Amino acid sequence: MSNIRETKTGLIAFGTTITTVITGLMFALIITRTLTPEEFGTWNVILSLVSYSLIIEPMISWWTTRDVARGEEIGKTAVIANGVSSIGGSFIFLVIAYLLTQQSNVEQDIIFLSIILVPLSFLKNTLYAINYGWKPQAASYSLLILEIVKVPLGLYFVYFLQMGVPGVIIAFVIAYTLQICVLTYFAKIKISNKFQKKFVKKWIKNSFLAVYLNVISVTTRLDIIIFVLIIDSVSGVAIFVAAMIVASLTGNAATVSSSTYPKLLAGDRGVYLQRSITRLFYFSIPLAFISIFFAKSALFVLNPLYAMAGIVVIFLTIRAFLNGITIVFTGYIYGEEKVDAKMDIKFKDQIKSSMFTVSTVKLIINGSYLVSLIVGLIVLKQNLVSELDLIIFWSSMALITIIPYTIYIYLRVKKSLKIKLETRNILKYFLSGIISFAIPFLISENLLEYSDNVFEFIFELSIFILLGIGIYIFITYIIDLRTKELIKNIIQELKNK
pTM of the full predicted structure? Predict the structure, then answer.
């Protein structure tokens, strides 16, 4: 049985995530207010390219988490193997970057400068995978360091030195390096062992499944490149990503279930799974309402140029809410899978596994999303619709296509793990969320002034958001037994600390 404490690990992960959300928004504020929409769009194209170059990276890190959680001493082996594979990732980056810059107006020099992020990402992800397999809270601490240091680095290189996108790249290089140092410190026990060639052979032999799973993830990020190639506009990407930053707040609630995956891998299957689902809804619902009710205000904070995209935030928030649920449920399915528990895994066993089946369904749905997006953008472009209409269509397709996958993944978990949604509790949270955030929103509509002083505006906006959070906690504490138990657990963990 796993010695990972579900409540403690989940609360640490969520508390860390909320902190990183604040620092992340601060960093986003720096770059969205300093960079032009074209520069901000270029930066997000770079992030997409880096993610594509990581397509082979899970060949090592995916199995690393699973093997570490099962007690295998493979830390040093994983670090060395993934270091070698980063050479291939860098080559993939160069090829895609060259093809993209030849077909669009994205600046080639800046794109190629960002290749330094590729090997750093390989190393960072490997060390993260090691920590996540045996000490998930250490992985959370490293994310906290990453997000905190990005803020002063962004201020210095982007705001004060006015270095633009190269300044953002330098800030990320330094931040990644510090995160790697933290991850190395926590994983030093796990990476001090011997290099084991047999595990490298195992990972390479089983690379199809790991890479296949990552291909599914990468396909969801092809939409940015598709938009750039068809519309030839990085400013449109900037608006979409700004809306995504606001919408992604609700997705952070998934971290309260961060311990379930390694616990399942270690063979621990208990009542905490049901608690984890209900707790996920308890945190994700209010975060979703914050993004929805204060969409326009949050976009104004990032940059007044993006404030007109409130409807885009609403679509993407609902999508992020559903995506958070699918991430947790997918973790349940992957954690239950035992196909890789032995050294010798046949190819036919891989394609019969639940991981392959679930990912194939997601690939089909992602493919339908990309095809619909391509066709829709071409048609709308020919009809000369506005750029905002194109972005609204983009976000609506992102929402529509995730709904069938969410239904499928829930039915799959319900069948395999015999888990049911506690609909009564969830309905309580939903109604409490509407009441809690509708009241501050209606008040803010009359009192909140869209001032040029962004810090004053953020302060006033924060008051209304905190008011809503306070009302939500108060109402749910009174009407919901689970909330009382959760708050007692938090208090107990703080006392233990």
Answer: 0.79
